[in-house]
TrEMBL record:
Name this protein carries in UniProt: Nucleoside triphosphate pyrophosphohydrolase
Ranges of residues in domain NTP pyrophosphohydrolase MazG-like: 30-103, 167-227
Homology family: Belongs to the nucleoside triphosphate pyrophosphohydrolase family.
Catalysed reactions listed for this entry: ATP + H2O = AMP + diphosphate + H(+)
Pfam families registered for this protein in UniProt: MazG (PF03819)
Organism (species): Falsirhodobacter algicola
Amino acid sequence: MSDDTEITRLLTIMRRLRDPEGGCPWDLEQDFASIVPYTIEEAYEVADAVERQAWDELPGELGDLLLQVVFHAQMADEAGMFTFEDVARAIADKMVARHPHVFGADAARNTEAQSEAWEAMKAAERAQRRETRVLDGVALGLPAATRALKLQKRAARVGFDWPEVDQVLAKILEEAGELVEARNTAAPEEIRDEFGDLLFAVVNLGRHLGVDPETALRGTNAKFTRRFAFIEDRLAAEGRTPADSTLEEMDRLWDAAKRQERADRR
C-alpha cells in the first residue's frame, strides 16, 4: 500500500472507533483533556526507543504517537473545529514559511543565521497571537526542566542572563545554601520553593554549558539503572538481594560497576 493509503486507513479506523453506533466505548468516552496524558506518554516512549537505540521498536512507537494526533484531530472534526487535513496543512505551511532558504528565493544560510531567522519568524508568529510578553507562549505542559530551559533562553534574548559560567556556579552555591538553611527552620512549602530555585539554577548551568537537562538526566537515570542492576546481579550470585545487604556492600559494588564501565569503554 502507498503511504497515502495507510494514512487514509488509519483515519478510517479512528472514525470507526469513535462511531456512536458500534464504536469502542472507551474511545467514545475520551476528550481532549483525558487523551493528553497518553499523548505525552507516547512522546516519551519515542524518546526512550531513541535513547536505547531500539530502532526496530521505533516505527511502532512513532505509530503510537501518530495515533494520538489522529485521535485529537478526529475529536476536533466531530466538534466542527478542524480536521486532520488542517493539522497537516498547518505544519506544512509553517515549515515552508520558516525555511525560505529552501523553499523560497533566499540563499542557503549557515546554521547560526538560520537559527536567528527561525527565532525571528517565531517571534512574529507570537506577535500575531498577541503574545506580547517575553515569556508568553512557553507551553505550561512541558516537562519542568525543559520549560525552565525555554524560559531562560527567552529571557537571555533580551539580556536577562548571567554573562559568565562562574556567576551561574555562584548562584547554585547560593541557592544550595538557602536550601540548607531552610531545611531545618522553614515550612514544607518554603523548602519546596528553595529546592525549585536550586533546580532552576542547575538548569541554567546546563544551558550555559550547552547541556540539555532532560537529555542529561535521562542519561544519568539510565546509568543509575544499569549500575544498580550490576549490584543486584552480583548479590543474586551469592543468593542475596539488596534488602539482605548493607549500604557499605552495595556502595563497594557500585564502585565495581563504575570500574567495569570504564574497562568496557577502553
